[in-house]
Task: structure prediction
Amino acid sequence: MKKILTSLLALVMAFSLASCGKKKAEQSNASGNGDPAMTSAPGTTADSKTVAKLINFTTEDGDIVFRINSSLGLDEDSWIGICTKGTYVYEDDADDASITYSFYEERESENEDFVFKVTYDGLEDGEYTMVLCDTDNEGYVMASWPLVIKDGNPTVDLSGFSINPKPENMPPKTNPAETVDPNEDGDDDGFDGNFEGPEGEEPDDGADDA
Result:
């Protein structure tokens, strides 16, 4: 009987220690140490220190200007958009629900913030969800946060800034971005688009156009 009680007690203590370890890990992840986008659990509302490190914003002339810390290492087709209120995981769903969006502006160095200007002018009063997507090509929603428009004025609620790691079950991209040759005009007539003839006429390729 003592052996059984001892075994049960040991088992309870083991579970207790495991539980404490998990809580410690969660607290460490919420502290803002390391890459917050990697350490936060799915849909985790980030603490204020993490948010202050990652993002800030201003409003000007009908736009909300977001500055994202360069440490996030965004792809060139990452975007921020205003969507109808909801929870989004995949970029395709956010894309379908987006009302207005913006890609980041050109940067002079890799150490500069990523700057997005998202237009809110003309939006109806109501509640919206803002999303930061990793790509415009079947990606995922890296982060989201609430937006409220009242009397035509925006209120960005960064206290609800939620960070999402990349979903483990991400489907492979079925529509890879096309690479376009800038010297090609898209026609199968042999004309490469660089001819500077009179009035922009294409040269006669000898084919019967009738």
